[in-house]
Amino acid sequence: MANVLLTDKCVRSCPYCFAKKHMTESEERRMKWDDLIYIADFHELSGDKAIALLGGEPTLHPEFVDYTLYLLERGFHVNVFTSGILSEQRFDECYRNLAHVPSERLSFVCNVNDPQLSPPGETLKVRQFLQAFGHLTVPGFNIYHLDFNLDFIFEYISLYGMKRNLRLGLAHPIPDTNNQHIPIEKMSVFAERLITYLPAFERLQIKAGFDCGFPMCLFTDEQLGRLFKANGGHLRFTCGPAVDIGADLEVWACFPLSNYHRKSLFDFNNLGEVARFFEEKHQLVRSEVGGIFEACDECIYRRDRLCSGGCLAHLLSKFKKEPAIRLKEIYDE
Question: What is the pTM of this model?
Answer without folding.
Answer: 0.90
